[in-house]
Amino acid sequence: MAGNSFGKLFNLTTYGESHGAALGGVIDGCPPGVDLDFDAIQHELDRRKPGQSAIVTQRKEPDTVKFHSGIFEGKTTGTPIGFVIENTNQKSHDYSHIKDSYRPSHADFVYDKKYGFRDYRGGGRSSARETSCRVVAGAIAKQVLKNLEITAYVSSVGTMKLNKPYSEIDLSKAEENIVRCPDIEMASQMESYIKEVRSKGDTVGGVVSCVIKNVPVGLGEPVFDKLHAELGKAMLSINAVKGFEYGSGFHGSTMYGSDHNDSFNNDGSTKTNFSGGVQGGISNGMDIYFNVAFKPVATLIQKYETIDKDGNTVEMQGKGRHDPCVVPRAVPIVEAMAALVLVDYFLINKMYS
Amino acid sequence: MAGNSFGKLFNLTTYGESHGAALGGVIDGCPPGVDLDFDAIQHELDRRKPGQSAIVTQRKEPDTVKFHSGIFEGKTTGTPIGFVIENTNQKSHDYSHIKDSYRPSHADFVYDKKYGFRDYRGGGRSSARETSCRVVAGAIAKQVLKNLEITAYVSSVGTMKLNKPYSEIDLSKAEENIVRCPDIEMASQMESYIKEVRSKGDTVGGVVSCVIKNVPVGLGEPVFDKLHAELGKAMLSINAVKGFEYGSGFHGSTMYGSDHNDSFNNDGSTKTNFSGGVQGGISNGMDIYFNVAFKPVATLIQKYETIDKDGNTVEMQGKGRHDPCVVPRAVPIVEAMAALVLVDYFLINKMYS
Amino acid sequence: MAGNSFGKLFNLTTYGESHGAALGGVIDGCPPGVDLDFDAIQHELDRRKPGQSAIVTQRKEPDTVKFHSGIFEGKTTGTPIGFVIENTNQKSHDYSHIKDSYRPSHADFVYDKKYGFRDYRGGGRSSARETSCRVVAGAIAKQVLKNLEITAYVSSVGTMKLNKPYSEIDLSKAEENIVRCPDIEMASQMESYIKEVRSKGDTVGGVVSCVIKNVPVGLGEPVFDKLHAELGKAMLSINAVKGFEYGSGFHGSTMYGSDHNDSFNNDGSTKTNFSGGVQGGISNGMDIYFNVAFKPVATLIQKYETIDKDGNTVEMQGKGRHDPCVVPRAVPIVEAMAALVLVDYFLINKMYS
Amino acid sequence: MAGNSFGKLFNLTTYGESHGAALGGVIDGCPPGVDLDFDAIQHELDRRKPGQSAIVTQRKEPDTVKFHSGIFEGKTTGTPIGFVIENTNQKSHDYSHIKDSYRPSHADFVYDKKYGFRDYRGGGRSSARETSCRVVAGAIAKQVLKNLEITAYVSSVGTMKLNKPYSEIDLSKAEENIVRCPDIEMASQMESYIKEVRSKGDTVGGVVSCVIKNVPVGLGEPVFDKLHAELGKAMLSINAVKGFEYGSGFHGSTMYGSDHNDSFNNDGSTKTNFSGGVQGGISNGMDIYFNVAFKPVATLIQKYETIDKDGNTVEMQGKGRHDPCVVPRAVPIVEAMAALVLVDYFLINKMYS
Predict the structure, then answer these.
(1) Per-residue CA distances from C152 to A238, C45, C207 (Å)
(2) What cofactor does this chain's UniProt record say it requires (chains A, B, C, D) (predicted)?
(3) What is each CA distance from A262 to B200, B206, B241, B295, in whole angstroms?
(4) Which of A323, B92, B260, D251 gives the lowest tally of CB atoms within 10 Å of its CB?
(5) What is the pLDDT of residue D197?
(6) Parallel, antiparallel, or unpaired for β D282-283 and D313-317?
């Protein structure tokens, strides 16, 4: 109920605070006999880790994962996979100034109200550092789903927007630049923009888009657990996300049915794909694609007024090592969550076989 | 796993096909001692039912709910509440033409692929008729949550959009017109527009917005089961929904942190509310507000080509009684799903008390 | 959480009170394409129903089940199966005398304390009448599990005990007498004994044994959800059950390892079966067998003293139509619960295929 | 689904193999603000650990627990508690002889069949070493449930049985001897007996009894999740358990209702307690008591024949460090599982308040 687990058959439970001893998790329900590629898992962590480029937070964490169980002679055994990521860079003293105060648009206030007190170091459990565990599990899920291709990329930073459908973009270019935008020219402009925003101590939002290819027909359950509903929940559970749309999305709400309906080809594929690869909550074999909106990071390197826990006005000064724009590092997280949703439905679907 | 249940402590399971004997459901976990207002429950069903106005489907169904259990002398007993809504208007012969064919942008194709065969009458389980059961449960959830005010309304139909923040709108006007748009002039234009679309046998999409007031601080769980993530899943599970955004939403992704952060007042409320009433997945006591995008209904009263189950091209003619625009009837469904999400977190939150 | 659901992939939710309008349930996760034998379902209900013989309660209920959904042209569709059993014999006036009093060893007292009040008619939700819904679902589960043979029988009534291992008994004889004991002579003695007990207005306990043949290897999950642990929970959830043992059971605790270990034959079967068909929580392909102990029914047709809700001593007189011994009617319930446990693991096990 | 989690609101997930790097777990849903007594937690682990006395396995493991999260300044924070117990004594070479063979009455055979292969070192995941994680979580659960007293003890070893009701025993004596039997004379005989059994390379079963005092009225859910049903599942999930009975248990099945019914005192307590503290699945405030039967440990220090994975007969020689009788070390495990069941219902029950 406390909500630190995700997935039904392939179930991930995570734990850990930003500045505790370690973060970690347990994957229960991974099928046995999967030959794990450990470099691929670490590669995904490296794509998410702080300090990876000039436009992300400069906190130094190697984010090395250690596996404790569920793997024998390189293969999954079908028993739970326990793993740990140690925090090597616990600068608790950096955070003493926020012990008794509530930073605007952070979770400080609500944690205190819900739990009575909080681990105030670096945001504690509310830190996006928790997503490192999701990336580990997502990397394993990808290996279970080997034929599927899940590719996320940055499609906008602030008002700077890549105005092309994914089908007209060479998505493989996304990993060639530090913004993770597949349009090299746009990526370069975004990079400059992010640096400029950071130089002012400010932050900016953005959008991550994701495309999933080679999805088998039949994934998803038709009523409450529609495939896109669970994808939406997965994405909205990532820190800083404010919106989710798939297929035609919000734009689809402005269209006529006669334009929006996807006519069939004789092989069951469709001529258009406004549906976004899902009908009635179930995958139809077409590409799944969706957008995820991220708000600007709340930590500014600026002076500001806020309140302390007694309601007094206090002045604070943002400091430390923070991301000016979260979307470049969010790309592997979006992919990981997509993989977790899909692997679960993939396993559930075996019930129908 | 098959996904016909929603909620953890206040759990709804639904069943029923569009043209089966009856739909129904079970609510497990409703607190005991709630004095039920049965008229209020039926009123919610009436807001959703077909045939209620000139701009919705003319299928005639009274949608009368009968309760079988869990209620004694007008009060909930704490035991499961079983209920049934009979289908009085089962016109199976209307649907024989779709038995062997797949309508574009319907679930016919994916049901056949997933389950091997399907109840083809009126879309079977994929019909939005299923949402009547959600409305029953949502109406009871509202009564458990008595102080909360959950108000949904139509904020756009096609490209016609109500461009005002909810705080500048008298939401009580929404129920005074058949479109359920609280701006009377806009509502009138939308009504004409929907009628015009219908006269062409076409359909159009729209957006339902929702505002929740008087939410206590502390609802929601911080990681995977964030309050807005579960709200998103709930909304995306409604038939025809393509997108969900809350607070600043997609627009928020274009903003600077210095503009987007919500400064505190000394009482813990915030001066602005770009957060949309949720921080770190937990309600902060401010109004929760969100938008839900609906695609245009897929059933057109037009001739079109599609394929049959053997992949042959066939010509079909849409007929029957269908909604030209789904949003007016979606308003009570959005409210019901919001109530189901909130009541669940309300009960879970008692764990922390 | 409120516990009216059972099973993970094949999930049953039940509702209904002893003297409400109806009982019913929803089965979510039944595989599609199962050709249902409706007579077999009703037959199981008939084995459980009141009034079936001279040694059970004479309450008259046809216990006819109506299906509302999830079945099309005689086959399951993969969507939820909703069903209803109407209460035709609601004698509310029979129960007014217990409205304000607590019958010893009934649930009256704890319901009042837990929920604040209760539906006092016939025990409300605490009545074993609820098990009729389990029997419906179990009968469908049996049809999914077609090759498995699940056979329960009465092995003791009071101190009268059938002292033979099941392998030396012709289990098919159990259904040939009203006690459901497969030893005809013993059955006849048990029948006389039950009648004698009833003539004194008293009741007596008993044991139901169950054997499951043709179980595939591999059902069950090794840690918390061991196959025998879930079987145990299933049996203990039946009204009046006080104990569960499988394989060597309590007697096994008195044995030496050198006697208790089951040596392998070369085909993987074992020479003995003290394990009871389960090793480490997982079926090993040998017969599963277990015993379920039932207490004597609490309702006596005698005068007795008890307390009312204010703690005053009051005199009561048991009356109405009650079972002098519950085990003959418990046989189909034990089988139903065993089927529900097995079908769930059968479906979960597909994850490993 | 893979069953490595236990509990709904207070949820424990465990991982780890007998000879892997470490075992560990995550507790999700522990209430915030609990001042943890870490010595008490380690004390419970010490009661379970190998090598603690002359009658248990001499494997040397300190079983030291390290907490990674969910605790701040000595108090639980309400976020998940991750913990790890490292394996310091991984003698993999001890187990190479069982790599390709199936030990009788062990899980070797079923793991190979279910998962396709297995971590054969020391039984892998099927080892009772997994229960160390349950003991950690149970120790924390006990601290949440502070007023409850949960006391388990050894009531029989082989045919040697303590024939007294718990109410006539000074349970505090159980921890004063290495058998954990509260009758000192009987304990001494049991100790000699276990040593004798071990000297022959044999093993013997036994029974652990448990008493829970100060239980509030109202814990438990009335239908499938009855309090005693969940207790039964919890106990049956412990390695080597073959049976569970509560209150009058199997003996109760031989009794008359007129003897078995528990008459009320005017304060709502009962004069007798054949019910075992639970009515209709809900605690009634009387002591809960139950028995758990353990089979003899399967590993004998003897020569024996068995089969290898190709079905060939092979001769094996049991060796290593094993328990001749599991019940002394099972006592803290039984208590831990009881605590986990109770804390969960304690939290669920807040829903009704």
Answers:
(1) 51, 15, 10
(2) FMNH2
(3) 19, 18, 16, 12
(4) B92
(5) 97
(6) unpaired
pTM of the model: 0.97
Rounded CA gap, C297 and C327, in Å? Answer: 10
Residue located via tokens 């001279």: C54
Query: How far is the C-alpha of C165 from the C-alpha of D251, rounded, in Å?
Result: 19
Residue B328 in marked binding region: no
Residue D9 pLDDT greater than 60, yes or no = yes
Contacts of A186 (CB under 8 A, 6+ apart): A160, A162
* Beta carbons of A21 and D80 less than 8 Å apart: no
Give residue-wise pLDDT tens across range D317-334: 887 778 999 999 999 999
Element (H, E) at A203: none
Q: Tell me if A317 sits within 8 A of A306, measured CB to CB.
A: no
pLDDT (tens place) for every residue of chain A, 353 residues total: 899 999 999 999 999 999 999 999 999 999 999 999 999 999 999 999 999 998 998 888 899 999 999 999 999 999 999 999 999 876 656 677 788 899 999 999 999 999 999 999 889 999 999 999 999 999 999 999 989 999 999 999 999 999 999 999 999 999 999 999 999 999 999 999 999 999 999 999 999 999 999 999 999 999 999 999 999 999 999 999 999 999 999 999 999 999 999 999 999 999 999 999 999 999 999 999 999 999 999 999 999 999 999 999 999 988 777 899 999 999 999 999 999 999 999 999 998 88
Residue D12 class from Cβ within 10 Å (0-12 exposed, 13-18 middle, 19+ buried)?
buried
User: For D34, phi and psi rounded to 5 degrees?
Assistant: -85, 120
Mutate to test the interface with C, among B26, B87, B140 (most CBs of C within 10 A): B26
Rounded distance, CA C112 to CA D218, Å? 9
Known binding residue D127? Answer is yes
Q: What pLDDT is attached to residue B319?
A: 77
Tokens of A329: 């590092």
Residue D24 pairs with which residues in a beta bridge?
Answer: D15, D84
CA distance B243 to B250: 10
E strand residue ranges, chain A:
5-6, 11-15, 22-28, 65-67, 71-72, 75-76, 81-86, 101-102, 149-157, 160-161, 206-213, 241-246, 278-279, 282-283, 288-294, 303-308, 313-317
CA distance C188 to C177: 8
CB pairs A-B closer than 8 Å: 356
List binding-site positions of C.
Answer: 48, 125-127, 239-240, 280, 295-299, 321
Residue D280 marked in a binding site: yes
SS3 sequence of A165-177: CHHHCCHHHHHHC
Residues of C in contact with D221 (CB under 8 A): 1-4
CB B257 within 8 A of CB A297: yes
Please tell me the distance from the alpha carbon of residue C322 to that of residue C345, in angstroms, as a whole number.
36
State how far the Cα of C50 lies from the Cα of C56, in Å rounded to an integer: 6
- For the question of an ipTM over 0.90, the answer is yes
Choose among A109, A101, A65, A99: nearest CA to A85.
A65
Burial class (CB in 10 A: 0-12, 13-18, 19+), A111: buried
Residue with tokens 């709200």: B231
Please state, in angstroms and rounded to a whole number, the distance separating the CA atoms of residues B207 and B197: 16
Contact (CB, 8 A) for D18 and D121 = yes
Distance from the B140 Cα atom to the nearest Cα atom in chain A, whole angstroms: 18
CATH fourth-level superfamily of A5-352: Chorismate synthase AroC (3.60.150.10)
Chain C positions touching D313 (Cβ under 8 A) are 266
Task: Establish, for the pair of chains A and D, how many residue pairs have beta carbons separated by less than 8 Å.
Answer: 175
Asked if B347 lies within 8 A of D351 by C-beta distance, the reply is: yes
Q: How many CB atoms lie within 10 A of CB A80?
A: 30
